[in-house]
Amino acid sequence: MNRQVDDYYYDVIVLGSGPGGLIAGALLAQKNHSVLLLRERGYPTSYDRGGYRFRPFSNFSEKRLRPSLLQKVSRELGLPWVDENSEKDFSVKEDHGKSQRRVPFQVILPKARIDLFDEPSLLRMEWKREFKDELAQIEAFYDEIELLQRDLKTEEDRDSSPFFPVVNRSFIQKWLSFLSTKSGTNERLSSFSKGFKEFVHLQLISLGNLFSDTFPISLTAHLLLREEKGEWVSSMDLDGLEGRICDSFLRSGGEMEEIEKAGGIEKGWKKGFTLTLEGDRRVFQSRFLILNSPLHFFSDILGNEKKSISRSLMKIQPRYLLFPCFLGIREKVVPVGMRDLLVSMLDFEKPYEEGNVLFLSLSPKGDETAAPDGRRALTVQSLIPFRSWSQAALTSHQESVMNHLNHLIPFLGRYLEFTDFEWANEQMERWSYPHFLYETTRAFDWRDGVIPTELSNDLYFTGKESFPYLGLEGEVLSGLMAGEQILKKSA
Fold first, then answer.
1. Is the C or the N end of the chain the one with fewer CB within 10 Å?
2. 3-class DSSP state of 286
3. Residue 325, CA distances (Å) to 187, 255, 358, 399, 420 in order
């Protein structure tokens, strides 16, 4: 494609700088497209303080990628980081020195604690201890979803699609697939105890970033049973990964600029998209536009393309804002048996907000890139209703979070270096802030995604709402898909 005379005309503009937009931009820049990536000025994706390093997260799936997908991205962008990480962290060492199978994360309920061992026999022992009265029923449920996952694995083995589990299928195939799994997970769990229902539901939210009464049972199988040994690269350095993609993008001729905020977006008949910025007299134009921030941000600035956003927003909306708190703690206060990742619920009868449900990420013991020697970086994510939160209510919310933490970690105050709520107060109203728990009330075929990568002609979306339940993998997939779709159109 030829660059036009106007200094502010590009083949592609990417608005936002998450992994999906970065990957799409780097792929297109390498193919000699003129690409401008606009990111929010001064927005930090992580937080450093006194030798501690924290990174907020939307779900536990953001911390893992399949090696096969990493290898594809590496080939496409010429990045060397796959070989450095692909064999790491498939087992953990306990303090007593014995090697055990990896525990992806831990679920803590009011009267139960379950380690999600990837070894089936060890996981069964957890069920037997905590849900002994319904063990046979639980085993039947897992047998059922294992069959669904086995079918998916068989399909993957014979599928040549680089975007699996997202696949291109005919209308008939999609319809038959939908009919075979049309009942939701809630229906299948209706006869179980409140404790087991919450055990499953908290896993789905922790991995899938989606709050839904119509969660497809096949997606439940995919999320609960995909923690097999060797299938995931964990402990991802996301800042490092994004930095290397940025370097690849810039080396390939891509341009990057920091802005305060987009003022408006209009689509013309001949010149494609016209983008204006708040507080800036320049006008940018491009044939293709990629949106890479939370979708609801664009609903007020998209002009004549607003209908495409409105249709998509009817499918998925933020239900909760994920509010991060950062704590520097001394290692000796961490209770015996507490895992590096865990989700905790205090009271079955209360809603998830007001600190009743917390998602915790502890930096690995001895990792001095995340915390000084003898200390751990603890990131705590709590839930605030998206439509009704206010700065005035944050004080009581913070107190509730600390009460929950003191319940989980006795004597925390004695070993606490600092507590930081201010980062969240300053950042979560910015347009780049990506951490939400989404809600959908409509049945959806998860193999197609919730929000399409191509929203309308030449308008693309690579944010979390496309595949929220696939975490970081979903963002990578949406970036690769958008890039390849644009390459086909412009060939």
1. C
2. strand
3. 35, 34, 10, 12, 6
Give CA–CA dist 18/85, Å, rounded: 21
How does DSSP assign 228-261, residue by residue? -TTS-B-S--HHHHHHHHHHHHHHTT-EEEEES-
pLDDT at 90: 32
Query: Poorest-confidence range of 139-143, 271-275, 341-345?
Result: 271-275
How many Å apart are CA 476 and CA 116, to the nearest integer? 26
pLDDT digits (tens, 9 = 90+) for 156-175: 777 667 777 776 655 445 54
Burial class (CB in 10 A: 0-12, 13-18, 19+), 238: middle
| Dihedral sign, Cα of residue 124, residue 130, residue 132, residue 136 | negative
Residue 211 and residue 438: Cα distance in Å, rounded? 6
pLDDT for 103 equals 83
Residue 229 confidence class, pLDDT cut points 50, 70, 90: very low
- Per-residue model confidence (pLDDT) at position 47: 94
What is the DSSP code string of 445-478?
Answer: -TTT-SS-SEEETTEEE-STTSSGGGHHHHHHHH
| Domain boundary assignment for the chain | 9-46+237-315+449-490, 101-224
Whole-angstrom distance, CA of residue 324 vs CA of residue 422? 9
Bigger pLDDT: 224 vs 401: 401
Alpha-carbon torsion (315, 320, 325, 330), positive or negative: negative
Please calculate the CA angle 385-60-473 and round it to the nearest 5 degrees. 110
Q: Which CATH number fits domain 9-46+237-315+449-490: 1.10.3720.10, 3.40.50.620, 3.20.20.370, 3.50.50.60?
A: 3.50.50.60
Burial class (CB in 10 A: 0-12, 13-18, 19+), 429: exposed
Q: Whole-angstrom Cα distance, residue 43 to residue 427?
A: 7
Both tokens assigned to 69: 């997908």
Tell me: pLDDT of 64 over 50: yes
- Residue 445 carries which side chain, given as an amino acid letter? D
Crossing angle of the two packed helices 67-77 and 19-30, in degrees rounded to 10: 40
Comparing CA positions, the residue from 279, 289, 362, 243 lying closest to residue 10 is: 289
pLDDT at residue 234 in the model = 62
Is residue 196 over pLDDT 90? yes
SS3 301: coil
Smallest Cα–Cα separation from 381: which of 433, 440, 441, 421?
A: 421
d(C-alpha 173, C-alpha 177), whole Å: 6
Question: What is the tens place of the pLDDT at every residue in 5-49?
Answer: 345 899 999 999 889 999 999 999 999 999 999 999 999 999 999
pLDDT higher for 274 or 94?
A: 274
